[in-house]
Amino acid sequence: AVVSTQSTGELSRQLKATAGTSTTSVVSGCDLFVRFITLSRGQKGPSSDVDILECKGFDPVRKFLVERGNLFMNRLKDSRRKIAQLAYPFITDGVTVLTVNISRVVLEILTKAHEKSKKFNVLVTQSEEGPYMVNQLNGRGIQATQILDASIGFVMERVSFVLVGAVGVVENGGLINKLGTYPVAVMARSLNKPFYVAVESFKFYRNYPLSQLDLPNDDKYQDPQQKGHPEVDFTPPKYINKLFSDLGVLTPSAVSDELIKLYI
Amino acid sequence: KAVVSTQSTGNLRMTEPISTEQVGVSLKEGEQPPKTKAQLKAERRAIQEAQRAAKQKLKEQQAQGGGAGKQKQPPTGAKPAATKSAAIATKPSAKGKPADVSKPTTKQPDKQPDSCGSGRVEILSHLKLYDRNIPPTQALSYTSSKIHPAFVKLGVQMARDIIVGSNARCAALICAVKTFIEDYNCPKTKEIRSHLNIALKPCFSYLAQCRMMSVSMENFIKHIKLQITKTSPDLSDNEAKEELLFECENFFKENIYLAGKSISEKAVARIVNGDMILIYKKSQLILHILLEAKRQRKQFKVMVVDSRPDLTGVASCERLTAAGIPCSYVYINSCTYIMKKVTKVLLASDALLANGYVLGPVGTAMIGLIASNYNTPVIVCCETYKFSERVQTDSILYNELADPDSMLKTLNADDSLVAGWRESPNTRLVNLVYDTTPPALVSIVITEIAELPCTSAPVVLRRGAVKL
Q1: Which of A172, A260, A264 is opposite residue B444, by nearest beta carbon?
Q2: What's the burial of B168, exposed, middle or buried (CB within 10 Å: 0-12/13-18/19+)?
Q3: What is the three-state SS of A83-130?
Q4: Mutating which of B346, B384, B446, B456 best tests the A interface, going by the most A Cβ atoms within 10 A?
Q5: Min CA distance, A31 vs chain B (Å)?
Q6: ipTM > 0.85 (yes/no)
Q7: What is the pLDDT of residues B71-118, one digit of tens each?
Q8: pLDDT of A228-259, one tens digit each?
Q9: Dist CA B410 CA B402 (whole Å)
């Protein structure tokens, strides 16, 4: 093989070490990146008609890997725009959107909807970085209000739907997101409000937790001694209505389909 | 596919175009003009109506004679086949049935209870009930039987529940097919790839008559038939046979043996120290997983849930305690009581259907439901070769009926209060083998290729088709 499995493992490890954190999005992104650039059987070389696996010498291969890498990066940068394109029609005039903490994808979707002159308002839970999200939204002219995490029960009846970002999406379609997402999901389900997730496809993660404890500890705690609160929580797929991703608008059961396509 | 009963074969005949030759019997005798299909149908319906009227009169006479009491309509199986085989019989008879039920009629107690006919539940009348008193080999002639002795033996072993379990039955079938192929000699004028399938056909239908085939067996048969048709005509007979023998062995190795190892690796990773794992009855795969977990020094306890009539959970318990795993044993009645102490439920399955439903031994759905009520994760282990393209949402459409008399044995005494159930018109005994668990109750399905949610079954089926 052009690139042996040992070296891909090494590459993954180095990427993750450089990133500094081992949150699921970084892990899954690195895994997918390595797979994308190496598993390209049948792909043509950069400037020849020869199959990449049959090229002599490493230079054309190196060129090829770099090209694939750039392609991957461009797709990644573009994914947020694609998601906004898919998701903004769900925001109609007069809706109230509830979102949890900060998410750049959600920000992009709401901005796009605002550009298309939709009138809506946003409620943002405080969590850790809620104030930053509110500032960003207000700065773009979107009416945004900060609410306490404890008040989601109080506001939920006024909400039209919930839209959150993601740190990772797992194999059964479940969601790993900033702490506080799970209670919002349960609350939304209890009052029959749709719960939407905006997530790029590189965050699809090969893990299948059955409970909160099943999440790898690295993902949960920044402090290696695991003191303090976890960073993320796990929302089971039955609370999620739709996922907006650059692969399309998916249901939680379709996530497994996509993951199988990507990995097996 | 519903079992074809005598009713529908009658209907099938009627839909064929009727030629003058078939009508010709009456022509030769009486020189009547050839009758149209409609006229013949009308004639037959008239005869049927006359017969029914006569029968009804007879019943009413007897009802007046004997004590009247509202009784159930005699089950479908008891009705003579003749009245059913008339053309468009379904319409008038369907109308006849509900109307008759409302009238109070006495049912004549059958003088010689037909062991298959009476005592059938109508809603399950499409399922075949094998007569346990007749040996499965009765229909076979001693000489010149097309059925290989390995299959004869296998059929009897299946019918008598000597070989049980989806993996075991499939493995036994693979052995029988291998023996057949080894002993097979292709006639000089025929090609192995067309003739071998024809030669195997009576063997498979004999097996189906002994006991309904499990999904694992059906999938293997599909696979091997395809491989036979794919053998290259350039190969000599011996080479082709060797190739097919290799295919059989490979099927077992990949889909049963190695798949089992892969599944147990993934399942053992989910078992943590301090777990209380619930298992249901006996499954080769689940026992393998638990013994492997024990070998990896995990500390866990097992709750074995068992149910009648076969009580295979006892054997499970024996194997686990012999390995040093602390076990508890309960009947399925007390499932709700013990479920709150259980941390994980580990179930095996006979098949995974295309709509995500899990086909398992009867009682699995109940355990799944109770577990979901307590938010306990339900882990189903299923090899991919057991994935079926069938779709069903209930346990009635496709199922198997086991021996009803085995339900009579109780722990205390063999002499049961319902021992005379066949004579009694009000008692039916039903011993179902499978039930279906909806995907909402299953947390995860562990297969050898991946850990999936139940709803991803069609994805695997799609990919399997591509691989072939």
Answers
A1: A172
A2: middle
A3: HHHHHHHHCCCCCEEEECCCCHHHHHHHHHHHHCCCCCEEEEECCCCH
A4: B456
A5: 17
A6: no
A7: 443 333 334 434 444 433 344 433 434 443 444 444 444 333 344 445
A8: 778 888 999 999 999 999 889 999 988 888 87
A9: 17
